[in-house]
Design brief:
Layout lengths: L1 E10 L2 E9 L2 E5 L2 E3 L6 H13 L2 E13 L8 E12 L13 E5 L9 E2 L3 H11 L15 E4 L6
Parallel strand pairs: 1-6, 3-8, 5-9
Antiparallel strand pairs: 1-2, 1-4, 2-3, 2-7, 5-6
């Protein structure tokens, strides 16, 4: 199983996402990436966001775990999604580190119309409602982390 970390980063403009073109359509992705052998999850997320978007972040609590099943020759992926706050830099793509077409802030009320990977729109919205702000996502409870089994990625 592959482990991927992602940062849920929100601000007044909405949710920070990366846009990719797949099969003639847009797929939006929560920023992050793979975890190297022996690497701590939070350190992997800090590294990935610095490499791909040139931002420094403070990594907060885990908001969700989401498991994607195998597809073709791709192994299943466990997504570990953290709340993050930008502490330095302005997000922009580093084309040497990512194949994304764009980094963008998406207003939260536009999430439902997007193809999001991993598809955790409900968890993001519920988390933001629970925190009472659009700026700082919080875990849904101190004891329970949502675990989501994702459907097969049909957009590839």
């Amino acid at each position: 199983m592959k482990i991927r970390v992602g940062g849920i980063i929100t601000g007044p403009e909405g949710l920070l996402l990366m846009r990719y073109r797949h099969g003639g359509g847009d797929v939006y992705c929560i920023p992050g990436g793979g975890v190297d052998d022996g690497e701590w999850l939070d350190c992997a997320l800090i590294r990935e966001l610095l490499e791909e978007l040139d931002i420094s972040v403070s990594v907060g609590p885990i908001l969700a775990l989401a498991q994607g099943g195998p597809m073709g020759n791709k192994v299943p992926t466990l997504h570990v999604l953290f709340s993050c706050t930008i502490t330095g830099g302005i997000p922009h793509l580093n084309p040497e580190e990512t194949s994304a077409n764009e980094v963008c802030w998406i207003p939260l009320d536009e999430l439902d119309g997007l193809v999001l990977y991993p598809d955790v729109k409900g968890i993001i919205k519920t988390s933001l409602r629970f925190s009472g702000t659009t700026d700082t996502p919080k875990p849904l409870s101190d004891l329970e982390i949502p675990y989501v089994k994702l459907p097969v990625r049909r957009w590839l």
